[in-house]
Known about the structure:
The protein contains six helices and seven strands, in the order βαααββαβαβαββ. The chain is an alpha+beta fold and 164 residues long. The protein has a seven-stranded mixed β-sheet. The longest helix has 17 residues. The protein starts with a strand and ends with a strand. The mean pLDDT is 91.
Amino acid sequence: MGKFQIRLAREEEGQAIIQLLQETAQWIKEQGINQWQYLLDGGENQEILQCIGKNLTYVVNHQEEMVATFTLYKEQNEWDQYIWEEDSKDAIYLHRLAVKPSYMKNGVGKEMIHWIETEYQTDKTYYRLDCVAGNEKLNQFYQKMGFELLGVSKDHSRYQKLLK
Length: 164
């Protein structure tokens, strides 16, 4: 697996994961993109900690440093129900994929996507994600990574990709 190691997050890493997400949210805000501002105020801290406890959250390390994180829901959460409007029992849902700003443009995002497609164990056929429709760079990234745009709902692009 290249120069990054991906593994399940441990409960004692909760605050470090929240800090990484907040650092990324601050960077996004500084780029003038309206996404993840609620993370800056601790808006999802409890949910983040619960996901770690339920073994849904992963961390990406480079040597000993945590450089990225993501969460995979095995079924829709409240947000997915709001955005997707219909439930696919045959999909997992990718949330809070975040790369530490100092590691952006180093292939970390590509490596996480590749890992999910090849290493993540599930009986589901697809994985889905959404992002703010106005975030052009992020939309381009997901399209380059082979995600199919299934439409826009409530100002969010909805993407789906086949798991291998």
